[in-house]
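Reading a protein record of the kind used here takes little practice once its layout is understood. Each number in the token line that follows is a code from a learned vocabulary of backbone shapes. One such record is shown here in full, so that the layout can be seen directly:
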Amino acid sequence: MILRTILLEDFGLYAGRQTIDLAPRKTASPRPIILFGGKNGAGKTTLLEAVRLALYGRRALGARVGEGEYHAYLDGRIHAANRVAGEGHAAVGLEFDYAEAGVVHHYKIRREWTARRGKISEALMLEKDGAPITSVPKEEWAHFLQELIPPGVSQLFFFDGEKIASIAEGDDDEGLAAAMRSLLGIDLVGRLRTDLGLYLARHSRGEDASATAELEAVLKEIAQVERRIEERTDALADRRTQRESHARAVEGLRRRFTAEGGEIALRRDSIEARRDEVRRQIARREAELKELANGLLPFAAAPKLVARFRQALSVKSGAVSQTALAMIEASLLAWVEENSGRSSPWRAAHIEALQSFFAEHRDDGSSAGDPMLDALGDAAGAQARLADVEERIRPLITSLAAELDDLTSELRAIDDSLTRANEDVTVPILTEIEAASGRLGSTEALLAAAEEELRLLRGNLVTLDRQRRKLLETQVSTASARDRSGLAARVASALADYEGRLLRHKVDQLSREFLRCFRHLLRKPDFIADIRIDPSTFQTHLIASNGREVAKGELSAGEKQVYATAMLWALARTSGRMLPMIIDTPLGRLDLEHRANLVERYLPAASHQVIVLSTDSEIGDDLYARLRPSISHSYRLDYDPDAGSTSVSDGYFDEQPGKGSPRALQQA
């Protein structure tokens, strides 16, 4: 099977009519990958959704979805721009090639619906080789498509990251087991055996009447249990949705509580204590700066003046002359005038004191000595004090100023946070959180009970199926009917033997394929030496190289994802079906090393056609470069919030549009 094109017409985020080419281009070496890149919310999952909807209609939503729910879903998928007064129209379509008996046929599906006056009218068009299918009545077209590509099979070929996660985390996936039996063709043999058993039972003689009644009772009970399992499975899905809704509500309230200062309100005493401590530290730093200001701090503010001062002190064998004093006075007064009006620790009182100092020590001829020496002491001492300005005072001032800035910023942040901590607002939110957490806890308890009930039902179904098989085997061994009944008994015996052999063969084949795929993808190829698969439940048991069973819980998160991917890959290979792969966000839960392994080893070899829907955080520049040799062509999905729609263009994120490939997108 090859998917050729997909049509999106006012569907979901896609406005207008868009037809996207999905077929791999013919190149010298196989390039099976068609890569779609889009950020979260850009419409990647909508593409996978459109494929399923085109093929299966209501069945795409699940086996037990009612018509009302399905019509509500269709109504919600009509693009807003195509709605007028609540009415609108949308469509999805798919073209694909499918081989039957060695002959390739071209199929075209178009599923469209219209919302009018609160009602949905849906139409399905199905063509084969350019003409509507006439060999199957139109009302049976939906069933025909389900037989062509069974939904249980498609979930192993068209899947998203959540499917991988469910296989990786679940201890026993009943849906996966049923899909395995369907995919491997084992369920067909089982149904045929059951039909033959009923035939034999209804044509048996009187002595087998009790066995006949017992078999019919068992089959009736199996049908009832299967219905109950379907009902409980749907109810369990509703419970899980409800739990997720409650969990989101709790998380939203917690974020709101934090935004409103709730966390701060709960810690108000400790925050206020810290605020007082910060204030004390600020006061201490300011006191230290004031003390320095009364000493040598003013000299630290005038490095050029200090340099000249030190030079003057060194004149004439360290003595200070009247010439040096005059030079210092002139330089200082010039500096004061130059810096007047700027922020400076020099004040008018400082300037007056300096002028008085120079006036007192200016030589008026009455003293033969140099009074400057008397004021400053020896020149060496003055030099030492001025050196202390550069070596100790200036770094200390810088450090104190930085600390003061940091403490001031912290104090401002504390004051802001305390202002936000309005208890009148946060206390009601805290009450809401407690109530929502209670609802979440109740839902989780109900969910656990539903899961346990479903587990018991599935165990009961296994027991009943074992009883059915035993009755069929007893019936075959004791059947005494002749003619048609005898022939049916022999056929049933042969089918029983065939089913057992087929099951063993397929399970062995699946085990070998899984080991090959798992080792190929895992960075520890010798970690798992064998796998044992239960033929009745398809539950797997991993065996280490030392013979010890490795529980799935012992695997790392990345190894669980690799396990699930390897199982899906092995099933696809074992089935022998040539179906394309559609994989939505496959790498989101993997670390970089496991991502690289899947990009290099799995995606290029998963199928003859692999459609990958990825974000730029999953397949970034490095992984894209590794995947590029296997990419046929790529598209980028861009969501425009103003228009409320997604556009599709050639190229993957930073890649130039249309590079290396012709235009592959039609829009109208």
